[in-house]
């Protein structure tokens, strides 16, 4: 299958005159999503009422959509389930992995990991109260700190700030050599680059669907449990949907088989409908084509910005194979500069302390958008157009 990027761009509702380079934070609206979500409300919810759980298939959406995602990330069928938030799925996966290595006490991560993952690990360690501790090291030092003390290696494959990419297969292999398990956060990988969890030997993984996948704000996360752990993985959050027979309403918990045990509460049907519409687009896409085009566009973007904006310093790895599908630059007034860009129709975002971040999403971004972004950035920097009081007042969401 060869990806038709003219077709993919036509599938999205993008505001006129906007260059959207923030799909690594929140993807734009697919044109099919409003109708798909409306169909859940009318006729499904309106006419079927509670019967929609069975007749419209609502109850099984976390698993049917989990299988669709599994096919996109190299996971075995029946080993991905959708629901809840990414933080909750990281917590579940980490708790399950720690329980499988009860004699060990170290969770190893890196200082570039997304803070929520680290907060979850700290909170879980405190809850366990058995001496489990989180150890963070510089990203480039992770391999050297994999010892027989480590129970779980917990990493985000692509750094949310710089786009730096870990070698998932190599680090998973190294972790297994010392008897540790792995948990990979795919938040900035899924929909950005090829992922093959089974081939890499990953133990647990989690990811979100509102970034590159375009399932909408608050869209549900997913969790992967490798087949070899599926029957033994503890669930930590023993919600009724993860019960072997949820409608038996037993007072005691019996975990469902395989990854279904990682379901927690009632599925968010409207959000799952939005995800369904987004996956319809992705199933017409070859991720290898997306990756190749992302690299070409990113290289064009870096070359253009560096040639015209000496004030900006590349924060992302220079070699494309070492980064995800985003490009970041250091600038001391990065927040104000980003606000100036947004005011001129080029939307990226800012990450403290000084990073201007731009997502390169080929499904709806091409050479014209990249060139316009370069021109606008150059104008803002050359004219110090960011140096206005209104651009320096930080909003709650940056």
UniProtKB/TrEMBL annotation:
One of its GO terms (biological process) is L-tryptophan catabolic process to kynurenine. This is Kynureninase. Pathway: Amino-acid degradation; L-kynurenine degradation; L-alanine and anthranilate from L-kynurenine: step 1/1; Cofactor biosynthesis; NAD(+) biosynthesis; quinolinate from L-kynurenine: step 2/3. Belongs to the kynureninase family. PANTHER family: KYNURENINASE (PTHR14084:SF0). The keyword Acetylation does not apply. Catalyzes the cleavage of L-kynurenine (L-Kyn) and L-3-hydroxykynurenine (L-3OHKyn) into anthranilic acid (AA) and 3-hydroxyanthranilic acid (3-OHAA), respectively. The modification N6-(pyridoxal phosphate)lysine is found at residue 211. Homodimer. Pyridoxal 5'-phosphate binds at residues 86-87, 114-117, 156, 185, 188, 210, 240, 266. GO terms for cellular component: cytoplasm. Pfam families: KYNU_C. GO terms for molecular function: kynureninase activity; pyridoxal phosphate binding. It is an enzyme of class 3 (hydrolase). The keyword Hydrolase applies. Its EC number is 3.7.1.3. InterPro entries: Kynureninase, PyrdxlP-dep_Trfase, PyrdxlP-dep_Trfase_major, PyrdxlP-dep_Trfase_small. Keywords: Hydrolase, Pyridine nucleotide biosynthesis, Pyridoxal phosphate. It catalyses: L-kynurenine + H2O = anthranilate + L-alanine + H(+); 3-hydroxy-L-kynurenine + H2O = 3-hydroxyanthranilate + L-alanine + H(+). NCBIfam families: kynureninase. Its cofactor is pyridoxal 5'-phosphate.
